[in-house]
Each structure stands twice: as structure tokens, then as C-alpha cells.
Amino acid sequence: MKLLDEIIDLAVDNTASISVALRKCLILAHELKNQRLQTWAEKELDGYDQVDEIPEYRRVIIIAKGFFLGPLGAQINNQPLPPATLKKEHRHWANEAILRQPIVAYEFTEPQKSNPIIHWPPDLTVMYQTKFFDGYALNRAWQEIPSSAVVALVDTIRNRILRFALEIRDDLGAVGNDVKALPPAKIEKSVINNIYGGNIVITPTAQNFTQIANFKVETGDLNALSKVLEQIGVDEQEFDELKEALEHDTPYKTQGFGKKTGAWVNKMVKKIGKGTLKLGTEATKAVITQWLAQYLGLPPS
Predict the structure, then answer these.
(1) Which of 207, 223, 225 shows the shortest CA–CA distance to 215?
(2) Which of 45, 53, 60, 225 reaches 20 to 30 Å from 136, CA-CA?
């Protein structure tokens, strides 16, 4: 299929525009009638809104820096800002940047002489103006994005497009080059595995258990466990309770969960009955159990 060959050529060529490759992926999504691929290509081309789920590859570990004014014209420039000084709800401004803009904003045509920056909102700067150094006022602050992280963002998208297109091209060989003959379930699986990295976006109102069950948690990845549980309505306090239960039960773990972890799961199931989570009771218990088993490295039940 000519379109797939063009997408592959664009993905392989580091000098080719990733935006053009994404536009061709959008055309392919319409031909394959795959909504998930279409949505991803559109978000990458148009940017992500505040309410959108952000792919992990668009989250970047950063250092925040500030410019301070002091007495008698004293100045402190490019001063790293410690996250611990900020309130918990603001701390991400000092340690993580979210790259929401359309991908074209990150396609550098020439090497960058300095790292890109994202300025703090003025209200946030004012709030912490006197919180860092006695006698010095924070005049402005920003997130400094490593140029290498931006290069990695573009390369990650390029690699995901390439893997997906190669797999679809291989599958086409079995159906005589007719994309309409490809099973929709097979296309969907390829999109999830290659484009979404094995994970799919879920929301607190999701009703499709199969969709939710596809979300994976790597063994020992507490951050991933937190994020998937948050998607079905587990709040921060409840997750802290789970961490305490896991810490208590770990020394006694043989097969299955310990008593405190099991009690926490049952508590979440009761929460369903009150209408807090938007899933069926059995489905929610099954998916929470699955994620905990993945986190603990236990075999599927």
C-alpha cells in the first residue's frame, strides 16, 4: 500500500517532517476507520488541551529556575528553585513540564543554542515572591526544558509511527493489500501496542471493562499504579492507605495479597456501591486486583 510505504519512509528519515507523517497517519486512520489512531494523530498535530490525558512521553523532568532582585541592586539569576518550597499542588512547576503544544512547535530545524523554557504564571510567581531567600524577591521564574528531551519527544513519536506502520504492512500481506479486509480488532490491538505503548486512556466514566483491563502496570512501578487507580476514582488519601497496606503486607507475601491489602481492595469495592466509581462492582474488583498483581509481580489469578 503506497500510503503505508510513504509513512514508513517519513518515519525512518530523521530529516523528514514528523507533522507530515502524522497527517498521513490521519488519512490512514480514516481508511482503517480506527477512531483511536485518528484521535492520537489529531492531538499530536493540534496539541493537547488542559482536560486531555497527556502521554507519558510528553511529560519531562525539569529544573525550575528564577531571577531574584535584592537590596542595593543585587541580583541572582538562573537560580534553581527547590520543589520542597512550593505547596504540593504547585510542586509540579518545579520538577515536571508538560509539553502540550502541537508537535510542529518541537520540530527544531536548527540546533538550539539554549534550552526551551516555559514561564511560570505571574500569579504563581507573586505567591512565592518572598519564599526562597531572605531579602530577595522572585522577579520571574520558569521551567527549563532540556533540548535533549524535546528531541526525544519527536523521536518517540517517529518510532511509534514506524512500528505501527510496519506491523500493518505485514498484516496487509495476508489479505491482498486491502486495508478494509484487516480485522478491526487486530488494527485496534496494533494501535494500542505500538501507538499508545501498550496502554490506553481510560476515564472515571469508562464502562468498557476490556478497555480498562488493557492498562498495564510494571512490577514495582508505584507511580504507574497510582495513575491507573486515579483514573477510576481512587483519591490521594486512599492511595496512601494502599501504600501503608502494601508496606505492612510485603514481609508476609507468599501468594496473593496480604490481609491489609485485601481489606483495602474490599473497601474500594464498597465504594462502588455508593456510586463513587463509575464501574460495575465485579469489574472494578477484577481490574484493581489485576493491577496490584502486576505491581507485586504475582502471576495472574
Answers:
(1) 225
(2) 60
* Cell representation of residue 50: 488542559
Rg (CA), the chain: 23
Cα–Cα distance, 225 to 296 (Å, whole number)? 10
Give the Cα separation of 150 and 282 in Å (integer): 42
pLDDT, one tens digit per residue, over 180-235 is 778 888 888 889 889 988 654 444 344 444 455 567 788 888 888 888 887 777 88
How are beta strands 63-69 and 137-144 bridged, if at all?
Answer: antiparallel
Nearest to 123 by CA among 169, 90, 97: 90
Per-residue pLDDT at 278:
46
Using alpha carbons only, give the angle 270, 274, 279 rounded to the nearest 5 degrees: 75
Contact between 233 and 204 (Cβ < 8 Å): yes
